[in-house]
Design goal:
This protein is α+β, with helices and mostly antiparallel strands. It has 11 helices and 15 strands.
Length: 415
């Protein structure tokens, strides 16, 4: 049986987070997106009122109002073209397209500024810490924070900002790094990620989902390889303006002949859910051809190291004590006996139909129900997960947000 050990790292720094007296939560999200609808379904199943929805587009435009006492769950602003165009359109100009890779720094600046304004709203409590979210959306800062806390991470390329391809190549050569991942600092879902390899006789190979077309970079569902240096140089040079994080390509464990890693969801300090991702490519993202692997086979392969794998995820989550939930990408090495943390995701809980680890604190619950249980909304047969982080903002200043059945409330479903 799979079991989940109790966290042995630091407990959340702020305790006492609970549902508001009337049980009604508000979700900052994109109306109609499955993140919003799946959370709403979990709330209804827990006997809570239908959550109100604050659209991201309203927050970014400054047209929202929040009543005192609002408890707000922060969802991802992604996968909404209107929101994306507002964030990245000004820097991409007339050539804007939702598929474009560039503009990550502008996206990051807009999102983090909006969340900081939200945190300063009197009388509003957030289920999440905007400052921690800002760190999780900056791969360089996340890596530095984890490393300082003693969480195992891949070796990172040192030396400050990368100026371009020639600078990157020279620094990799000096550091003796022959296989690395080049990642946009503020990217997600493997957007712009390049798996870069140097062969012993000067060969070069870059594996990525980026399609170069007419001097622009577009995300694609097809993973491709570039082996001409001029193309690799163009990739890197076009990624540089948004900032890069470069780290050693750690040889990962395998399952059924495919490389494997895990997304571990940590709720209120406990590893509650895990999914194995396998691929015959360097990136295991499911939308890029990856597939869910067997958790039972992973546990068997890890053997006595399995509890350590889950504890590593919990130690990474403990670096973000103000976050009720984080999704930790855990990379087991080839032997399955050692693990490193690749990334920590602020919105890493979109795992439909995945229930909690058998024998663990969220057994039988999906990721959203587990978070509600941590807040004290316990579905039938479930056990509370324990103390969750506290709210970050409280005040008594009067503000206003209409609820879903109010005639002036924005639409909460797409037509």
């Amino acid at each position: 049986m799979l079991t989940t050990p109790r966290a042995t790292g630091p407990a959340p720094a702020r305790a006492g987070l609970r549902l508001p007296p009337d049980g009604r939560l508000t979700v900052l999200g994109n109306p109609g997106h499955r993140r919003v609808t799946l959370f709403a379904a979990a709330a209804r199943a827990a006997g809570l009122p239908e959550p109100a929805v604050l659209p991201w587009i309203d927050l970014l435009r400054g047209t929202h109002r929040l009543p005192p006492g609002t408890v707000l769950r922060i969802e991802s602003p992604g996968e909404d073209e209107e929101v994306d165009a507002l964030l990245r359109g000004p820097v991409l100009g007339a050539d804007y397209a939702a598929t474009r890779v560039e503009g990550g720094a502008a996206w990051y600046t807009g999102v983090t500024a909006a969340l900081r304004r939200l945190a300063a709203t009197p009388g509003v409590g957030l289920l999440g810490d905007p400052e921690e979210i800002s760190v999780m959306f900056d791969k360089r800062r996340t890596h530095a924070l984890l490393s300082a806390a003693g969480v195992p991470v891949p070796r990172a390329l040192e030396g400050g900002a990368i100026a371009g391809w020639e600078d990157l190549r020279a620094r990799l050569d000096a550091a003796g790094l022959r296989r690395v991942f080049v990642k946009p600092s503020h990217g997600s879902s493997a957007s712009g990620v390049v798996a870069l390899e140097f062969g012993p006789r000067g060969q070069l190979r870059a594996t990525t989902s980026v399609e170069l077309a007419d001097g622009r970079m577009h995300n694609s569902l097809r993973v491709r390889r570039y082996q001409e240096e001029r193309q690799v140089a163009e990739l890197v040079d076009r990624l540089v303006p948004d900032g890069l994080h470069v780290e050693q390509w750690v040889p990962k464990a395998s399952q059924s002949g495919r490389s494997a890693d895990l997304r571990v969801v940590v709720v209120a300090g406990r590893a509650t859910h895990a999914v194995v991702r396998t691929s015959d490519r360097p990136m295991t993202n499911l939308h890029l051809g990856g597939a869910r692997g067997s958790l039972e086979l992973a546990r068997e392969a890890a053997g006595p190291a399995w509890p350590d794998l889950l504890e590593t995820a919990e130690r990474a989550a403990a670096c973000f004590p103000g976050s009720l939930m984080v999704g930790v990408d855990v990379l087991p090495t080839a032997s399955w006996r050692r693990t490193v943390v690749g990334e920590v995701n602020a919105f890493g809980d979109l795992l439909p139909r995945l229930t909690g680890l058998p024998g663990g604190p969220a057994e039988g619950l999906d990721t959203y129900a587990a978070q509600l249980a941590a807040l004290g909304a316990v579905p039938r047969g479930a056990v509370p997960l324990g103390t969750a982080p506290d709210l970050v903002t409280r005040s008594t200043h009067p503000t206003h947000l209409t609820h879903p059945n109010h005639p002036n409330h924005p639409r909460t479903e797409k037509p």
